[in-house]
Amino acid sequence: MTEGSIANTAQQEFWNNVAGPRWVGLGGLVERRVRAVNDLLLARSEVAAGESVLEIGCGTGAATVPFAKAVGERGRVVGVDISEPMLAGARKRVAESGLGNISLVQADAQVHRFEPDRFDLITSLFGVMFFADPVAAFSNLRPAARPGGRLCFACWAPLEENKHWLIPYEIVLRHLGPPAPKPPHMPGPLAFSDPGYVRSILATAGFADVEIDRETPDIIGSTPEEEAELACIMQPSGLLIDEKKPGDTTREEIKREMVEAFVAYSGGKEMLLPSTVFLVTARRSR
Predict the structure, then answer these.
(1) Which terminus has fewer CB within 10 Å in the chain: N or C?
(2) How far is 54 from 78, CA to CA, in rounded Å?
(3) Max CA distance (Å), the chain
């Protein structure tokens, strides 16, 4: 990507040099946690055999491959992501799947020139909350859908409704204090946690028939130790740690308390953690 083809340079830097390598280094832990959300997204999108699908923020391809299986040999899926480390993971997953109907593109979806009037479905699994200018991004995406084409994406509800994040975040908050004040709706995992804000973005961008459904799938946790490791480098808790930069002793204490907190949810069995997501659907109106 050239500098002129990037609108969100901060997120490009973050996902190529910080979050992307961390995510891939976790060896599929993040993808396993949200399997239930992936299933919900696939069902809500009503994807059908033979359709063309554009996936925004495809990451390591955890949703890309199921969508490609759903559209079959006569369909195709184009996965787009700004992060080369994430796309490297996606290429590996696609190769292992043996599917030949997937194309992967490194691009900033806010400004990339997509083939017009082409896609039956534009979808995303937690990939659309990171646009520097969401209205510009969805305005850019809308012409890529065929007239009447569908939009369907998953985004996180507020932090208070996502226990899997709130558990470690409250521990970090107690040790390090609150984050520095930031403008509302800054790019990040919780940027679309206000349904009214999401509706206004899509309406302004020219999408119609916007519906936002609240779902409460279980997050499939790993071991308490792995959950604590994840929370220290990703998620709202990891972002706060990155901001505050505590010393090693404090970091270890935070991690120890996270492990103890997650033990209460493990019970010696598969750890299921409460979450709330929004499934957003709309159509290209013109």
Answers:
(1) C
(2) 5
(3) 57
**Residue 285: per-residue pLDDT:** 82
Q: Residues with Cβ < 8 Å from 13, sequence gap 6 or more?
A: none
Distance of alpha carbon 189 from alpha carbon 109, whole angstroms: 17
Question: Which residue type, as a one-letter code, is found at position 143?
Answer: P
The pLDDT value recorded for residue 3 is: 46
pLDDT digits (tens, 9 = 90+) for 227-280: 999 999 999 999 999 999 999 999 999 999 999 999 988 876 778 999 999 999
Phi and psi at residue 208, in whole multiples of 5°?
Answer: -125, 170
pLDDT in tens, 46-65: 999 999 999 999 999 999 99
The residue count for the chain: 286
Q: What is the pLDDT of residue 184?
A: 87
Mean pLDDT of 213-224: 94
Query: For residues 275 and 5, which has the higher predicted lDDT (pLDDT)?
Result: 275
Strand order in the sheet with 119-125: 102-106, 76-81, 52-56, 119-125, 145-156, 277-284, 207-215
Only one residue has tokens 């490791």, namely 229
Mean pLDDT of 92-108: 97
CA–CA dist 221, 226 (Å, integer): 9
Q: How many CB atoms lie within 10 A of CB 148?
A: 12
Give the whole-angstrom CA distance, residue 75 versus residue 93.
19
- Under DSSP, the state recorded for 195 is H
Judged by DSSP in three states, 206 sits in coil
- 3 state DSSP class of 150: strand
Q: How many CB atoms lie within 10 A of CB 2?
A: 5
pLDDT at residue 6, rounded to an integer: 60
Residue 261 has a CB neighbour count (10 Å cut-off) of 17
The tokens describing 18, both together, are 């910080």
Q: Which of 105, 133, 136 is nearest to 119 (CA)?
A: 105
